[in-house]
Design a protein that fits this description.
- It is a single chain.
- This protein is mainly beta.
- It has one helix spanning about 55-65; strands at about 65, 70-75, 80, 85, 90, 95, 100-105, 110, 110-115, 120, 125-130, 140-145, 150, 155-160, 165-170, 175, 180, 185, 190-195, 200, 205, 210, 215, 220-225, 230, 235, 245, 250-255.
- It contains one helix and 28 strands.
- The longest helix is centred in the first third of the chain and has 8 residues, at about 55-65.
- Mean pLDDT is about 80; it is low at about 1-10 and about 10-55.
Length: about 270
Protein backbone atom coordinates (compact mmCIF):
# COMPACT_ATOMS: atom_id res chain seq x y z
CA UNK A 1 0.00 0.00 0.00
CA UNK A 2 1.32 3.47 -0.90
CA UNK A 3 1.27 6.24 1.69
CA UNK A 4 2.25 9.65 0.31
CA UNK A 5 4.09 11.69 2.94
CA UNK A 6 3.00 15.18 3.93
CA UNK A 7 4.05 17.57 6.66
CA UNK A 8 2.16 17.26 9.94
CA UNK A 9 -0.14 20.16 10.64
CA UNK A 10 -1.31 21.57 13.94
CA UNK A 11 -4.32 19.66 15.29
CA UNK A 12 -3.68 16.50 13.24
CA UNK A 13 -4.40 13.15 14.90
CA UNK A 14 -2.33 10.44 13.24
CA UNK A 15 -3.59 6.95 12.52
CA UNK A 16 -0.12 5.46 12.56
CA UNK A 17 2.77 7.29 14.25
CA UNK A 18 6.05 7.03 12.36
CA UNK A 19 8.11 4.00 13.41
CA UNK A 20 11.59 5.40 12.79
CA UNK A 21 11.39 9.15 12.49
CA UNK A 22 9.76 9.08 9.08
CA UNK A 23 7.33 11.89 8.29
CA UNK A 24 3.74 11.44 9.47
CA UNK A 25 1.46 9.71 7.00
CA UNK A 26 -1.79 10.61 5.33
CA UNK A 27 -3.94 7.91 3.73
CA UNK A 28 -4.51 8.03 0.01
CA UNK A 29 -6.52 5.07 -1.30
CA UNK A 30 -5.53 3.82 -4.74
CA UNK A 31 -6.84 1.05 -6.94
CA UNK A 32 -5.66 -2.34 -5.67
CA UNK A 33 -4.66 -1.09 -2.21
CA UNK A 34 -5.27 -3.37 0.78
CA UNK A 35 -7.61 -1.62 3.20
CA UNK A 36 -6.38 -0.90 6.69
CA UNK A 37 -9.87 -0.56 8.08
CA UNK A 38 -12.41 -2.76 6.28
CA UNK A 39 -15.94 -1.60 7.03
CA UNK A 40 -18.08 -3.98 9.04
CA UNK A 41 -20.57 -6.10 7.15
CA UNK A 42 -23.40 -8.36 8.25
CA UNK A 43 -21.54 -11.43 7.02
CA UNK A 44 -18.29 -10.92 8.91
CA UNK A 45 -16.79 -8.40 11.28
CA UNK A 46 -13.62 -8.43 9.19
CA UNK A 47 -14.88 -8.63 5.62
CA UNK A 48 -13.39 -6.46 2.86
CA UNK A 49 -15.56 -3.51 1.96
CA UNK A 50 -15.74 -0.11 0.29
CA UNK A 51 -12.62 2.05 -0.14
CA UNK A 52 -11.50 4.15 2.79
CA UNK A 53 -11.81 7.95 2.39
CA UNK A 54 -8.82 9.71 0.94
CA UNK A 55 -7.65 11.62 3.94
CA UNK A 56 -7.13 10.39 7.45
CA UNK A 57 -9.41 12.97 9.09
CA UNK A 58 -12.35 11.76 7.02
CA UNK A 59 -11.37 8.16 7.73
CA UNK A 60 -11.40 8.77 11.47
CA UNK A 61 -14.68 10.65 11.26
CA UNK A 62 -16.46 8.01 9.21
CA UNK A 63 -15.18 4.97 11.14
CA UNK A 64 -14.89 6.69 14.54
CA UNK A 65 -11.46 5.17 15.14
CA UNK A 66 -9.36 6.91 17.77
CA UNK A 67 -5.66 6.06 17.91
CA UNK A 68 -3.57 8.09 20.32
CA UNK A 69 -0.61 9.76 18.63
CA UNK A 70 1.74 7.97 21.06
CA UNK A 71 0.41 4.50 20.17
CA UNK A 72 2.21 2.31 17.63
CA UNK A 73 -0.04 0.39 15.23
CA UNK A 74 1.40 -1.75 12.47
CA UNK A 75 0.11 -0.68 9.03
CA UNK A 76 -1.19 -4.20 8.35
CA UNK A 77 -3.19 -4.44 11.58
CA UNK A 78 -6.97 -4.40 11.03
CA UNK A 79 -9.09 -2.09 13.19
CA UNK A 80 -12.88 -1.90 12.98
CA UNK A 81 -15.05 1.16 13.42
CA UNK A 82 -15.29 2.61 16.90
CA UNK A 83 -11.95 1.20 18.09
CA UNK A 84 -10.04 3.30 20.62
CA UNK A 85 -6.33 2.81 21.34
CA UNK A 86 -4.65 4.58 24.22
CA UNK A 87 -1.16 6.05 24.48
CA UNK A 88 1.94 3.85 24.27
CA UNK A 89 -0.04 0.77 23.26
CA UNK A 90 1.45 -1.45 20.54
CA UNK A 91 -0.63 -3.36 17.99
CA UNK A 92 1.21 -5.94 15.89
CA UNK A 93 1.05 -6.86 12.23
CA UNK A 94 -1.36 -9.80 12.46
CA UNK A 95 -3.80 -8.35 14.98
CA UNK A 96 -7.49 -7.72 14.28
CA UNK A 97 -9.62 -5.64 16.63
CA UNK A 98 -13.41 -5.69 16.37
CA UNK A 99 -15.82 -2.76 16.42
CA UNK A 100 -16.27 -0.72 19.56
CA UNK A 101 -13.34 -2.28 21.43
CA UNK A 102 -11.45 0.07 23.73
CA UNK A 103 -7.76 -0.51 24.40
CA UNK A 104 -6.17 1.40 27.24
CA UNK A 105 -2.60 2.66 27.59
CA UNK A 106 0.52 0.48 27.55
CA UNK A 107 -1.30 -2.55 26.10
CA UNK A 108 0.56 -5.01 23.85
CA UNK A 109 -1.41 -6.96 21.22
CA UNK A 110 0.93 -9.29 19.37
CA UNK A 111 1.02 -12.44 17.25
CA UNK A 112 -2.00 -13.73 15.35
CA UNK A 113 -4.56 -12.25 17.71
CA UNK A 114 -8.23 -11.52 17.12
CA UNK A 115 -10.24 -9.36 19.53
CA UNK A 116 -14.03 -9.29 19.13
CA UNK A 117 -16.43 -6.39 19.48
CA UNK A 118 -17.07 -4.13 22.47
CA UNK A 119 -14.24 -5.46 24.60
CA UNK A 120 -12.45 -3.37 27.22
CA UNK A 121 -8.74 -3.98 27.66
CA UNK A 122 -7.12 -2.06 30.50
CA UNK A 123 -3.63 -0.71 31.06
CA UNK A 124 -0.65 -3.03 30.77
CA UNK A 125 -2.45 -6.12 29.43
CA UNK A 126 -0.33 -8.35 27.16
CA UNK A 127 -2.20 -10.54 24.67
CA UNK A 128 -1.05 -12.92 21.95
CA UNK A 129 2.62 -13.24 22.89
CA UNK A 130 4.55 -16.49 22.47
CA UNK A 131 3.73 -19.26 24.96
CA UNK A 132 5.88 -19.98 27.99
CA UNK A 133 6.53 -23.53 26.83
CA UNK A 134 9.87 -25.16 26.02
CA UNK A 135 8.20 -27.18 23.25
CA UNK A 136 7.36 -24.02 21.32
CA UNK A 137 9.39 -23.80 18.11
CA UNK A 138 8.03 -20.60 16.64
CA UNK A 139 5.01 -22.05 14.81
CA UNK A 140 2.13 -19.84 13.72
CA UNK A 141 -0.56 -20.08 16.38
CA UNK A 142 -3.46 -17.96 17.53
CA UNK A 143 -5.17 -16.15 20.38
CA UNK A 144 -8.88 -15.58 19.80
CA UNK A 145 -11.00 -13.44 22.12
CA UNK A 146 -14.75 -13.05 21.65
CA UNK A 147 -17.14 -10.17 22.29
CA UNK A 148 -17.94 -8.04 25.34
CA UNK A 149 -14.96 -9.19 27.41
CA UNK A 150 -13.35 -7.12 30.15
CA UNK A 151 -9.62 -7.72 30.57
CA UNK A 152 -8.21 -5.78 33.49
CA UNK A 153 -4.78 -4.40 34.25
CA UNK A 154 -1.67 -6.46 33.50
CA UNK A 155 -3.51 -9.62 32.51
CA UNK A 156 -1.47 -11.89 30.21
CA UNK A 157 -2.87 -14.21 27.53
CA UNK A 158 -0.48 -16.40 25.49
CA UNK A 159 -1.15 -17.86 22.07
CA UNK A 160 -1.08 -21.62 21.48
CA UNK A 161 2.02 -23.81 21.37
CA UNK A 162 1.16 -26.11 18.46
CA UNK A 163 1.04 -25.00 14.84
CA UNK A 164 -2.37 -23.53 13.93
CA UNK A 165 -3.53 -24.10 17.53
CA UNK A 166 -5.63 -21.54 19.38
CA UNK A 167 -5.96 -20.11 22.86
CA UNK A 168 -9.68 -19.39 22.94
CA UNK A 169 -11.75 -17.04 25.09
CA UNK A 170 -15.50 -16.75 24.52
CA UNK A 171 -17.91 -13.89 25.23
CA UNK A 172 -18.91 -11.79 28.24
CA UNK A 173 -16.01 -12.81 30.47
CA UNK A 174 -14.32 -10.84 33.25
CA UNK A 175 -10.58 -11.37 33.69
CA UNK A 176 -9.44 -9.29 36.64
CA UNK A 177 -6.01 -7.76 37.21
CA UNK A 178 -2.89 -9.93 36.82
CA UNK A 179 -4.80 -12.96 35.53
CA UNK A 180 -2.69 -15.35 33.44
CA UNK A 181 -4.14 -17.52 30.66
CA UNK A 182 -1.50 -19.88 29.28
CA UNK A 183 -1.22 -21.51 25.86
CA UNK A 184 -4.09 -23.59 24.44
CA UNK A 185 -6.54 -22.73 27.21
CA UNK A 186 -10.26 -22.74 26.41
CA UNK A 187 -12.51 -20.34 28.33
CA UNK A 188 -16.24 -20.37 27.66
CA UNK A 189 -18.78 -17.58 28.18
CA UNK A 190 -19.68 -15.55 31.28
CA UNK A 191 -16.62 -16.76 33.18
CA UNK A 192 -15.09 -14.78 36.05
CA UNK A 193 -11.41 -15.04 36.94
CA UNK A 194 -10.53 -12.98 40.02
CA UNK A 195 -7.24 -11.19 40.61
CA UNK A 196 -4.04 -13.19 39.99
CA UNK A 197 -5.91 -16.37 39.07
CA UNK A 198 -3.55 -18.48 36.95
CA UNK A 199 -4.22 -21.11 34.30
CA UNK A 200 -1.50 -23.48 33.12
CA UNK A 201 -1.56 -24.79 29.56
CA UNK A 202 -4.55 -26.62 28.05
CA UNK A 203 -6.94 -25.75 30.91
CA UNK A 204 -10.67 -25.57 30.15
CA UNK A 205 -13.10 -23.30 31.99
CA UNK A 206 -16.70 -23.98 30.99
CA UNK A 207 -19.51 -21.42 30.87
CA UNK A 208 -20.26 -19.43 34.05
CA UNK A 209 -17.38 -20.92 36.03
CA UNK A 210 -15.84 -18.71 38.73
CA UNK A 211 -12.18 -18.93 39.73
CA UNK A 212 -11.19 -17.18 42.94
CA UNK A 213 -8.25 -14.85 43.35
CA UNK A 214 -4.71 -16.25 43.69
CA UNK A 215 -5.89 -19.70 42.59
CA UNK A 216 -3.65 -21.81 40.37
CA UNK A 217 -4.95 -24.46 37.97
CA UNK A 218 -2.72 -27.33 36.82
CA UNK A 219 -2.31 -28.07 33.11
CA UNK A 220 -5.05 -30.05 31.35
CA UNK A 221 -7.52 -29.57 34.23
CA UNK A 222 -11.18 -28.93 33.36
CA UNK A 223 -13.49 -26.82 35.53
CA UNK A 224 -17.15 -27.47 34.80
CA UNK A 225 -20.00 -25.11 34.10
CA UNK A 226 -21.39 -23.02 36.99
CA UNK A 227 -18.69 -24.32 39.35
CA UNK A 228 -16.89 -22.00 41.74
CA UNK A 229 -13.34 -22.40 43.04
CA UNK A 230 -12.44 -20.48 46.18
CA UNK A 231 -9.52 -18.10 46.42
CA UNK A 232 -5.96 -19.34 46.97
CA UNK A 233 -6.91 -22.87 45.89
CA UNK A 234 -4.53 -25.39 44.34
CA UNK A 235 -6.47 -27.10 41.54
CA UNK A 236 -4.73 -30.29 40.33
CA UNK A 237 -7.81 -32.31 39.32
CA UNK A 238 -11.01 -31.71 37.38
CA UNK A 239 -13.90 -29.89 39.03
CA UNK A 240 -17.30 -31.25 37.90
CA UNK A 241 -20.16 -28.92 36.95
CA UNK A 242 -22.25 -27.30 39.72
CA UNK A 243 -19.58 -27.89 42.39
CA UNK A 244 -18.04 -25.65 45.03
CA UNK A 245 -14.35 -26.38 45.55
CA UNK A 246 -11.82 -24.80 47.86
CA UNK A 247 -8.55 -25.37 49.63
CA UNK A 248 -5.03 -26.70 49.41
CA UNK A 249 -5.43 -29.57 48.66
CA UNK A 250 -8.69 -28.90 46.86
CA UNK A 251 -11.89 -30.23 48.47
CA UNK A 252 -15.12 -30.42 46.50
CA UNK A 253 -18.62 -29.80 47.86
CA UNK A 254 -21.90 -30.36 46.06
CA UNK A 255 -24.06 -27.27 45.82
CA UNK A 256 -27.52 -27.76 47.34
CA UNK A 257 -30.21 -26.93 44.80
CA UNK A 258 -33.10 -25.04 46.45
CA UNK A 259 -36.63 -25.17 45.07
CA UNK A 260 -37.45 -22.70 42.35
CA UNK A 261 -35.19 -21.24 39.66
CA UNK A 262 -31.77 -22.81 39.24
CA UNK A 263 -28.57 -20.83 39.56
CA UNK A 264 -28.21 -20.98 35.78
CA UNK A 265 -31.61 -19.36 35.36
CA UNK A 266 -30.64 -16.64 37.82
Amino acid sequence: MIFPHRRQQKGDRLLFPAFSGAPPIAISQQKGDRLLFPARTAQSAFSPAAPIPVNHREALRSLMIEVDEKAVVHPKAVLEEGVEIGPYSVVGENVRVGPGTRIGPYVLLDGWTTIGSNCQIFAGAVIGTVPQDLKFKGARSFASIGNNNVIREYATINRATDEEGTTLIGDNNLLMAYVHVAHNCKIGNNVIMANVATLAGHVTLEDKAVLGGLSAVHQFVKIGTVSIVGGCSKVVKDVPPYIKADGHPLLQHRCPVPPGPSRVDI
